[in-house]
Amino acid sequence: MQSPQSVVTTTLGCRNKxxxxxxxxxxxxxxxxxxxxxxxxxxxxxxxxxxxxxxGYELTxxxxxLEGVTVGTDVRLAGVKVGSVSDIHLDPETYRxxxxxxxxxxxxxxxxxxxxxxxxxxxxxxxxxxxxxGSPFFYEAGAEVEDTQGAVSLVSLLLKFVTGDxxx
Length: 168
Hints:
Layout: H1 4-12, H2 20-48, E1 56-63, E2 74-77, E3 80-90, E4 97-104, E5 114-119, E6 126-131, E7 144-145, E8 148-149, H3 154-163
Parallel strand pairs: 1-7, 2-6, 5-8
Antiparallel strand pairs: 1-4, 2-3, 3-4, 5-6
């Protein structure tokens, strides 16, 4: 016959305390999983170009069309990423897309530069391209770029080609 204490232990499913070797293995495996997770987050941040907002300065630009550009879109100069689009909103007075570009603090943009929406190719996405001017003076933080060119719609270009429309 079993003692009352052994019956309670058996019915509750209790077991003896694990030995120290099992605890060490669990701690090592948990530490390894945590290290892999931290490494993954660091790698993902590096690949996506994640930077703090204080790493640069902001310029604003106004576009007629921002087709294919969203917050986070690359800003490139000579094909090199120098920033990203940090805000987009519609100006209710002019019906133009106001865009805030965050530029890397180490990159100085001449104050006669143009900002255009470019395409990576027929199937690629759009990005914001800075076409530097030759001025010896540079944009200050918060300045507005006046010389802009919006996105060109490939569908409308193909439609003009097909229909033979020669109007600009």
